[in-house]
Amino acid sequence: MTLNRAPSYDGLRTLVFDSTHLLYLQFARYVVVGGAAFLVDFSALYLLTGLLGLHYLLAAAIAFILGLTVNYLLSCIWVFDRHTLQNPAAELIVFTIIGVVGLGFNEAIIWFVIEKVHWHYMIAKLISSSIVLFWNF
Question: Most CB atoms closer than 10 Å: which of 59, 72, 93, 128?
Fold first, then answer.
């Protein structure tokens, strides 16, 4: 009797650096990339608003775009070895449209939480990120 097992890997190097088409490995990498993008987004918001004094909505937009760019680039380089669309320009356009809608959600949620609920902009960002995550996925 033979048990079906997941493919074996030659250690951590293979898991981290080799190209893969395995869905569960792509998902694990996507979670790591999403975490990195969130850190860029969240940190940039703090730096732009808290340290440089930019208005929170302008800073949130810049930070969101930085995080989205990190997400896109790392996903292309590390997560996915196949593309949904064969045309890279079309794929970028679709990604951009999804990103712009996500940016709109991000701005609206942050504005609402700050202006109507009167919570700190970093709390608003945590709430927004949690909600927009589902849109972007």
Answer: 128
Query: Taking Cα atoms as reference points, which of 107, 35, 23 lies closest to residue 70?
Result: 35
Q: Is 119 exposed, middle or buried (0-12, 13-18, 19+ CB in 10 A)?
A: middle
pTM above 0.70, yes or no: yes
CB 107 within 8 A of CB 60: yes
Task: Check whether 91 has a pLDDT greater than 90.
Answer: no
Where does the pLDDT of residue 7 fall: very low under 50, low under 70, confident under 90, or very high at 90 and above? low
As a whole number of angstroms, the distance between CA 1 and CA 114 comes to 61
Locate 50 and state its tokens.
Answer: 């808290």
- The label of the residue with tokens 């650096």 reads 17
Kind plus residue range of the DSSP H or E element containing 45: helix 23-45
How many Å apart are CA 48 and CA 62, to the nearest integer?
9
CB 121 within 8 A of CB 45: yes
